[in-house]
Every structure is written in structure tokens, then in C-alpha cells.
Amino acid sequence: MAEGIVGEFLALKEETDADLLAMQCGDFYEFFGDDAEFVGEELDLKISEKSSHGSAYPMAGVPLTELTPYLKALVERGYRVAVADQYEVDGGHKRAIERVVTPGTLLETTDSDARYLAAIVREDGGNDGAGEGRYGLAFADVTTGRFHATEISGDAEDVLTECYRFAPAEILPGPAVRTDDDLLERLRERTAGTLSLHTTDAFTPDTARATVDEQFGGAALASVGLDEAREAIRAAGAVLDYVDATGVGTLASMTRLQPYHSGEGVALDATTQRNLELVEPMGEAGRTLLDTIDHTVTSAGGRLLREWLCRPIRARAELTRRADGVEALAAAALAREELREELGGAYDVERLSSKAVSGSADARDLLRVRDSLAVLPRLADAVAGSPELQNSPIADVLARPDRAAAEELRGALDDALAEDPPGGVREGGLIQQGYDNDLDELIAGHEAALDWIDGLADREKRRHSITHLSTGRNKTDGYYIQVGNSETDQVPESYDQIKSLKNANRYTTDELEEREREVFRFEERRGDLEYELFCELRGRVADAAQLLQDVGRALAECDCLASLAVHAVGHDWTRPELVESGLDIDGGRHPVVEQEVEFVPNDLELTDDRAFLVVTGPNMSGKSTYMRQTALITLLAQIGSFVPARSARIAPVDGIYTRVGALDELAQGRSTFMVEMSELANILHSATDESLVILDEVGRGTATYDGISIAWAATEYLHNEVRAKTLFATHYHELTGLAEHLDRVTNVHVAADERGDDVTFLRTVEEGPTDRSYGIHVADLAGVPEPVVGRSRDVLAKLRAEKAIEARGSSSGQSVQAVFDLDAGSFRGSASADGGRTTEDATRGSEADPDSGDDSLDPEAESVLDAVQETNIDETSPVELMSRVSAWQQQLDDTEEDG
Ligand code: ADP
């Protein structure tokens, strides 16, 4: 074991489970050994060698004052860094780990997004192999003091969905989660959070409850309805304990436990957030919904808008409240602009309050708190003076924080703080005159001493008739008198020479030395006293953390609602009407695309009887735009926004699910078809009859018949079992026939006008299916040589002649069965009340009847057909269906190869 400083480093390293240790050695923080090599490499630091007791160790260091940016860089790469500080003790130094900086507890963040630390626990013995069980989740943002906890019943997918919403930077898995390889794998793969292990003690129910009670008060859990939520409490307790253990000192900024019920929200998985480009673009050229509608003027406002977009809600009262606010602000043009201008003078109060709590706020930060607090009454005045806003939710939002307390704190800061303080907090200049008598005396004495020194040069010049005489001060010489070389012979005896320069000499005198000591004494006492007064003030701000969070939240909400109003007015959006069922959009537009092109508005109607639209139309006609705009309009309505439509009647949904083209996954090198199927599986599992499902092509990633089979089965399942509102765009023209047999399926198509070789996209959505399959047609239009096009038509015809598909549907208890003849493009079949399988007349006469003696059919293919026929879709899970289809595909492929 190494001795000396390296030995001390290694011993401290033993104490912590952080990835890296930065240890203070005088004016530097040093990394040694492996840590030094690693950090040197990662951060491009110079690695030197430290000899210690005969051995040499790599060493890399950063100056004390520059640690923060390096810490930030390491932590943002996902590492946890322990920081050991040095203390003077009798006759030497002592070092101890003061804090551990981790991705979820990093305070020094520059981006305006929230930075969450999460804990995920599952009830003991809850792993049934499929990950089903009760989960507790807690999310804390140390930069703002936000704290949320919830409990859900579900599986890993539900946990991931919640994680996407908060996008935690760091995740603490509880004991049962740690042993669940599958969940850990998914967390690693699909979230950007670093997984950190925290002591299992913190997760035990009793300990966790005690931690939560201590933090939020004994009544908090009951008052937010989490008293019985054992798993939520475990998660919350673990997060609090971890924040405390890291020693970043922000625990006190968490003043309030905010429960949230995932059931109240709208399920919006990561795939859907990405597909809809809510806050992150898909490609480089992509423009997000957030970019498009964000007119907020503060970073807290922007953060809240982002949060709203990622966490739409269902609660009608809250949606109505927000929309009332937007409506009032939309109408109050002048007051709205006044409001936004005032808001522009506010800073990120929630973040500032966290900085005050952790003791890292400087005087400039406190001035920012003061200025932000001053915004509140100005906003209130603007609102009171506006007839539209007076009685609107905006007035309520501004009435939420305790305005008297806010004004008192603002006044105190205003009385105390100097107007232009330095960035440091130790060397004075922080507090204004007139605030503290002792300080005023110190200031007066200090300034008198300084005045004496200021006048010294003039006095000495006159007294000794020396022209080139000046005074100055520097670090090594302190105060001095400087005389040019030409006149040094005139210098009086009382001058002591302290330095000889090229062109001048420096001197001091007894009197100057005395004054110098006086100045230094005043400086030190003034610095100390100002620091003390400043700390008191900062403590006062820290104590007001909850007030500041209320103020920050109110300002952010005003900003957010005003931003929605600005966009609504500027782009002619309308307020959606919230109804009990259905979705009825008149003249709907895509919020992002409408900014880029002359947009053709389209209508959409979904009702209980018409819940499933099969959308067809040529490539590039506008199918996916139509479907996305539907999802986005619904989502906008569920954050309380106006929507891009002439009018809209919307029943809030419990989830929005999408499955769209897989370009980005291709780029990631993942198996596209596998991804497509797992997304489909998720939708079929999770969606309910109150969800909105958008499917943009299903089954495209595999062979045609495979694809059709899956699309077909999925449609039936969504229609019969899930009963979700669904928009399904497909290039399988065959699927349009389903409308005749599944009673709630309707065909619509995006119209295109084709004359000769030209296609004109009309962008209008019309009832009914397209009249043809477009693939070969497009090939023709694109100039593929005629022999190839002609041959494609032959091949298609032959393919169609060989297969038929049975359709199953149910309406009011009655089963409908029919056989779809791919060749004829229509159904043959009949309804049967018993729900029994294939009726004889459904298959009789079909060219596809396996028994019809068609000897072109390979026995292997025939066995596949049999298997297809024998599969009872109603009793087979979608996943099982998929795997069967995949096996059939393999069988058919083998047959083809053999043949
Ligand atoms: P598809 O899904 O049918 O292949 P898209 O929805 O991707 O087609 O639309 C192709 C392009 O057409 C879009 O990039 C968009 O610019 C334009 N577009 C789509 N719908 C409309 C519309 N209603 N009005 C104007 N342009 C539209």
C-alpha cells in the first residue's frame, strides 16, 4: 500500500463508491493513479508523475477555482466524482470527502432543462418473470427542488414510459430492480440516465418513511394521498437519502412532495415522443413541435412548456383552466405584450433558490432573486388593469405565491445588496452603506485610510520637489512610493528603498507602512463582516425556498400560457371543445408543416361507430402528415393549448401510440423488422378503448404476405379487442376491403389527380379507398422500363391468385367471417352467429382452397396455410401470433429456396 499523499488518496478512494476522486492538495485538486490516467485522457489534462516513497504514480490536477467545469464535463459523461477537501488541523492537513457529484445531483448546469434523479423500486417478490408488479417511482430535480413520487401497477414498459417523461440523468434501482437483468438492460438502452447503486438500507420501508417524514413533515404523505403507497415511499426515501449522502447540500430546496398519478396523464412512450418530434427532431433537418410553438421569454417558462408537451393530461378541470388562460391572453393583446415584457426581466428563480440553499449563490444571484421578485407585482398590476385578464386564471396564477412575503424579501435584498457586486463573496463590495452600523464604521475608516494614501503622491511631490513620483500597490511590495531614476538623489532619508527597477526605485516609509497595515486590517474586517452579512442574507433566501419555488412556478406558468396565446393568435388556432367521446376536427392542419408550405386543411371524424380509419393514397400524398396532425392536435388540446384547426371537438385520450417508418432505427443498425414488431406489440398490449393509435405502415419490413398477414391480424385485434381510435395508413391496398366486414372500420384516402404521366397531389382527404394499388403505378410513373412494369403486373396477378385471407370481425356479439380474395380484391363469405370458424361457403369455389386440387401448391406451403387456418386469433396473443407468422415466413422461405 502506498504511503504519503498517494496513500491518503487511495485510502479515501476506498471509502467511496464514486467512480473518480478529486483530492485537494493546496491550490489544486489532484487525481492520482488510474483516475489520473482516465481523467487525463477524457478531459485532455496533462499527466505528470508523483513520486511517493520510492514509487511513481500518474497525477493530473486542476486549479481549485477551475474544478467546476471539469466536474461538470465528467458528470455529464455519466461519471460520479467524489471531492475531498483539505483542512488545516494542528500541525498539518487533514482531508475528507465532502461531496459526491453525480449526474442526478449536479447543480452547476447550464442548460435550462430539468435534471432529474430517479429511484425505481419494485415490491419484493414482485418479479413474476414478466416484470409485472407494483412499482414505486420518485423523481427529484436538485436544480429546482422539484420532487415527484408515484406508484404504478404494471410492467417494465410502464416504468420506462414514466422514465421517458422525466428523462432522468441518473437512476437509482431498488433492490428488486437490481436483479432484474431485463429491466436494467432496457433502462440502459432506452434512457440516457446513469445507473447508480445506493445502499439498500435507504430503500427499506421504515427507513424510507422516516426519511420522507423528516424531509416533508409527518403529515405530508397523508395529505398527498401517498400514505399507503409503500413502494412510492421507498423510492422517495431513497432519492432523498441519496441527495443527502452526496453532500451537495440541496436537500433543503426540496420543500414539497408532489404526487402525480400516471393514470391522470396521457401515456406517451419514448417512441411516440420521438415519432411526433415533440421536443427532439428525428433528422438533422427536423423541426420539433416545441421549437415551433415556443415563444416563452424565460428559461423556466420554456422548461415548463417542454414538460407540458411531454406530459399531457386528461383532467378536464385543469385543461379548461389552462385553455381559459390562453383564451384570455389571446384576447388581451396589449396586456399580453406588457406581461411578456415584464416577464423578460425575471430570472430562473427556482434554480436560484436551489443555489441559495446549497450555499453556492453569490451576490449577483441574490440581485437576480430581488429583480425577479419585483416582476411579480408588476405582472399583477398589468393583469389588474386589463378587463380580459382581471378575472382570468392568470390572475389566480399570480395570486398563488405569498405576495407580501415576496415583497418583504425583495425589500430586504434591496436594502442590503450593493448595486454592482463582484463575482466573489469574500473580498467585500457586496453590501451597501447604511445597511449595518458596524460595517458603515469600517467603511468610513477604510476609506479615510485610502484617501490618505491617494493624496500621498501629491503631498510628497510638493514636499521634496520630485516630479516623477507616484504611488502604487501590488501583491509582493504592498503599497510603495516610486521615484524615477533621474531624481533618486533627491529622495529624503526617511524613505526605505524596497526595490530597484530599470528606470525607477521603490520606497516605503514608516508612516506609509502604518497606513498600509490599517488598510489591510480594514479590508480584512470589512470582507469578513460583509461575508457574514451576505451569508445571513443568503440564508434568508434559502429559507424562502418554497416561496421562491411558488414565484418561479407562477412566472413560468404565465410565460407558458402567454406563449401559447401568442402562437394561437399568430397562426389562427382555435380553442378545442372538450367532449365526452369521439374526435371531430374541421379544417385541421399540421402545426409544424403549416409553417413551411401552403397547407391544405383536412377534416377528420372519429366516433364510436367509426373508430378505425384505413388511410390509403399514393406515396407522398400526405397520409402520414394527416395522421400526425391528428395526434398533435389531440396532444395540444391535452396540454391546454389552442389547436391548428377551424374547429375541433376532442374527447381527451388516455394515451397516444404511434408506429411509423423506421428510418432512424435503420441508421442505428438495429433490426428494423424486430423494432417494428416490438413497437406493435407494445401498442397492442398497452392501448385501450380510450387511446389514439397511429400506425403508419405495418408489416412493411418483411415479405408481402407476411406483412399483410400481420397488418391484417393487428387490425382485427385493434378493432375487436382493443377498440382504440385508430388511424392506419397502409400501402396494402388489400386492407381497404376490411371496411366491409369490420363494422367500425372506414376507408379514407388522400386524393391525387393523375393525368397521363403527371400526379398532382391534392392533399385532400376523402371518404373511400383508393381505387388501386399504387406501387407498380409509381414505378411506371417513375420511368421504370415498360417490360419490367408489365412483368410486375403479371407477377402481382399471379401472386394474388394464389392466396386468400379469412377476415374475422365482430359486431354486437355477432361474428362475421369472410374470405378475402386477393385476386378479386373483394370478400366472399357470410356472417355466422356462432362465431365458429370458416364456413364452407366462405371457401367453396375459392381458387385458394387448399383442397381444390391446385397442384401448384407446395406441400410445405400447404402446411403453412393449414396452420394459418387453424390459428384461433381470438385466443392467441399478438406476440405469439407474430412469432408464428415469423416461423411461417421462415418455412415459406425455405420452400422457395428448395424449389
Ligand atoms: P405520405 O405519408 O403519403 O407518403 P407525407 O405525409 O409524408 O406523405 O407528405 C409528403 C409531403 O407532402 C409532406 O412533406 C408535406 O410537405 C406535404 N403535405 C402533406 N400534407 C399536406 C397538406 N395537407 N397540405 C400541404 N402539403 C402537405
Structural topology:
Elements: H1 4-15, E1 20-25, E2 28-32, H2 33-43, E3 48-52, E4 55-63, H3 67-76, E5 81-89, E6 92-101, E7 116-122, E8 133-141, E9 146-154, H4 156-166, E10 170-173, H5 175-178, H6 181-190, E11 194-195, H7 205-216, H8 220-223, H9 230-246, E12 258-259, H10 270-275, H11 289-293, H12 299-310, H13 316-331, H14 333-343, H15 349-358, H16 363-384, H17 393-399, H18 403-416, H19 437-464, E13 469-474, E14 478-484, E15 496-500, E16 504-508, H20 510-543, H21 545-570, E17 577-578, E18 583-588, E19 602-606, E20 612-616, H22 623-637, E21 647-650, E22 655-659, H23 663-667, H24 672-686, E23 691-696, H25 704-722, E24 725-729, E25 745-755, E26 758-767, H26 774-781, H27 786-802, E27 804-811, E28 814-821, E29 826-832, H28 840-843, H29 859-870, H30 878-898
Parallel strand pairs: 1-5, 7-10, 9-12, 10-11, 17-21, 20-24, 20-25, 22-23, 23-24
Antiparallel strand pairs: 1-2, 2-4, 3-4, 5-6, 7-8, 8-9, 13-14, 14-16, 15-16, 18-19, 18-21, 25-26, 27-28, 28-29
Helix pairs in contact: 7-9, 12-21, 13-21, 14-16, 14-21, 15-16, 15-20, 15-21, 16-17, 16-18, 18-20, 19-20, 25-30, 26-27, 29-30
Bound molecules: adenosine-5'-diphosphate.
Adenosine-5'-diphosphate is lined by residues 593, 597, 599-600, 602, 617, 619-625, 763.
